[in-house]
Request: fold
Amino acid sequence: MMRKEVTTRRKVEHCLSFDIEEHFQVAAFDSPARRRQWNSLESRVQRNTEKILEHLDAHQVRATMFVLGWVGERYPSLVRQMAEAGHEIGSHGYSHELVNVQTPEQFREDVKRAKAILEDAVGQPVIGYRAPTFSITQETTWALSVLVEEGYAYDSSIFPVRHDQYGMPGANPSPHLLSTDAGSLWEVPPSTCKIAGVRLPVAGGGYFRLFPYWLLIRLLRKIESEGETLVMYLHPWEFDYEQPRMAGPALSRFRHYLNLQKTEGRFTRLLQDFRFGPIREAISAIGQLYQQGVSRQGAIFCTTSASREEVA
Ligand SMILES: [Zn+2]
Reply:
């Protein structure tokens, strides 16, 4: 597989990630009726993702792309295009169902299906997972064992904050190795900043668009000065100011549509202000797991908990 020459790359210090999904798949607007429309609504994910890829290419930055299996199934060439540009392909699950509304069996099928689709598209191991809406919480920690059993080496779904829809207040806010019943798993939480004793999310999505840019930078520099690796996240639909507006609760509409026109400008400044890369490069222990997966390809594609113990 063709890869871009890497010799001119700047050193990677922080993690940049995207959850690759359609604008109509976000959990805030989810309903059985909306899901029935998925195949008939206008698809904008390819165009929006290509916009992101152009910005990344212009700044010679690579990132981790947590691709929804549903998207990967429809746009395998987009997934390949991202991998060929040197981006890491991770899994956002298949159906964008929140973890807490799935049984362990449904969750296993969802993450297995997404991994198979994405690995088929790129011919590389997919070792990272991010749950829809960060929905691994205190009630769904069983999901971590399932991820290990299904061959994932890291998760980026535990948000160590208090929030109405997700979060695990008090969870370790730094990338760390977790132990589960099935073996070890790296956890890579999105960045948070402690201010006056309260841990605030600052790493992406609505928060990235909410704060004035100077304040956002100040908060990110504070996290950096504490020796932390930044873990930022954005979505293709955040780069699409003209997306069709959806009906839904006022708070959801506020969070989804707030300052969309500012995303692109802020994002390009962010790429100039910090040195970002894919999770598997910014966190070297995860990079080693990926390399082991590449060198034993067949093994990591259908890993059992026993063989996972070896690579962990
Ligand atoms: Zn999502």
